[in-house]
Amino acid sequence: MAHGHEQQDGNDHSHGHHHSHSHSHTHTHIDFAEMLPMLEQEAELFSPLYTQAASWLREMRPDPELIVDAGSGPGVISCLLADTFPAARVIAVDGAEPLLERARERAAQRGIADRFGTLQAELGDGLGDLEYPADLLWASRSLHHVGDQRGALAGFVDRLAPGGTLALLEGGLAPRYLPRDFGIGRPGLQARTDAVEQEWFARMRAELPGAVVEDVEDWPALLSAVGLRHTGTRTFLLDIPAPVSDEARAFVATSLGHRRDGLAEGLDADDRATLDRLLDPQDKASVYHRPDVFVLTALTVYVGVKP
After folding, report:
1. How confident is the model at residue 212 (pLDDT cuts 50, 70, 90)?
2. What's the pLDDT score for residue 35?
3. DSSP SS3 for 195
4. Nearest to 142 by CA among 46, 30, 267
5. Which helix (H) or strand (E) segment is 70 a member of?
6. Which of 64, 112, 231, 282 has the fewest C-beta atoms lying within 10 Å of its C-beta?
7. Please, where are the H alpha helices in the chain?
8. Radius of gyration of the chain (CA)
9. Which residues, in sequence order, are CB contacts of 206 under 8 Å at separation 6+?
10. Which pLDDT does position 64 carry in this prediction?
């Protein structure tokens, strides 16, 4: 499962799979391998946020020997964790082999291949092929792609060493890229797009295998229910004010384009027309040219420790 995803209850389902999990699709099946460029683009742009989160985890768990990134996508965060914990071995776990191949390439480019491995597995099937239990297990916006989230969490706990730490990134605040009123179309475009995406997300969840098990998204309670001691919750802010870099501008265009394509049926004609203008490189009002583009979002990490 890839991450990085655009946010549902705050999850920008574009995944890193991490990850802008911009789950903007006209159907509810997600081909994460196809999303590889977007997953990398988002995870790299969001790296300052992930670096803050990793530093926070290092304060709580300074010396893990084995770190598992469950739902690693193309490995941007896996490599960041390897940088944060230079003595640790890191295993990237994902269901899509093309993403794991990219993760191995990234690790080699960064000179950490000797302590970096991959494992192809679907998170709903557990992590049973891990050779050793994990001291730190990171799951970033991957759990919500599993029908039985409680069952998957229990599987994570099984693969944690005693005293091991689970860091679960889910929820937060949906991203904003433009002012409420940016001069074309009706004000409030992103709020309306979020509402359509919420409906899409509900359908996606309902169609997942095992989705008959529907748990309320009270993550601290779910961590406790699977035998962990909830030890902390913290939200990390990504604030890239206008004027943005070319990289941030490209990400905004990719993210909005993904939503335009995937949510078109749920948007009215005026909002589709506004998005078309925002995405037209020839239009001076597009995100490629306008000076008021920014990136603002927040992601929440829940931590539990195995007794």
Report:
1. low
2. 75
3. helix
4. 30
5. strand 66-70
6. 282
7. 36-45, 47-60, 76-84, 97-109, 149-158, 189-206, 219-225, 246-262, 269-278
8. 19
9. none
10. 98
Higher pLDDT, 147 or 299: 299
47-60 helix and 36-45 helix, angle to the nearest 10 degrees? 70
Q: What is the pTM of this model?
A: 0.89
Q: Identify the pLDDT of residue 163.
A: 97
pLDDT of res. 179: 98
Summary mean pLDDT of the chain = 89
Distance CA 123, CA 143 (A): 8
User: Pick the residue with more confidence: 96 or 1?
Assistant: 96
CB 156 within 8 A of CB 124: no
CB atoms < 10 A from the CB of 217, how many? 15
- The strand pairing partners of 92, in sequence order, are 69, 118
Q: Scan for tokens 């304060």, then name that residue.
A: 59
Pull the structure tokens for residue 76: 């941007």
Sequence-distant (≥ 6) Cβ neighbours of residue 275 within 8 angstroms: 189, 256, 259, 260, 267
Place of tokens 């509810």: 28
212 in Cβ contact with 151 (< 8 Å): no
Q: What percent of the chain has pLDDT over 90?
A: 75
Predicted confidence (pLDDT) per residue in 86-126, tens digit: 999 999 999 999 999 999 999 999 999 999 999 999 888 87
User: Which amino acid, residue 88?
Assistant: A
Buried residues in 249-265 as b, exposed as e (16+ CB within 10 A): bebbbbbbbbbbebbee
Backbone dihedral region of 61: left (phi > 0), alpha (psi from -120 to 50 degrees) or beta? beta
